């Protein structure tokens, strides 16, 4: 499906260029458009982990919990951060998937972590694009751009001391 849409976009751009200039320009534009799509698919996506690193200075421990997923354990609590940085669209879709479905999956994964750790885990989905507010709640899931998510986490009142953080980190590793 995605390839068909991209092919149609490339063909339409080629036809427009051919109409304005000549057929060679149309072929060139269509080819360059397709090449751009191929390159965008092969270049690795940015990872939101870079923004999360600033949490370390505030006493948080970042633990990898899978591809593009981190457990941030610190004074403000435990956060399961999905750091793929998918784009959010005005039609309430995150990375092409309905936002509610993304939130359900994030909440389910956070619930599994809660059973392992024995404490509340707040799921956070990092996105790119415009949001109506810096941090949007979808049920118990927070959706935010990386910097806004970090600000939100750092703004939480202290809920865990150093001993709690160490205990939760060890529980996660075992």
UniProtKB/TrEMBL annotation:
Q: Which branch of life, at top level? A: Bacteria
Q: Which protein is depicted?
A: Uncharacterized protein
Q: Which organism is it from?
A: Streptomonospora mangrovi
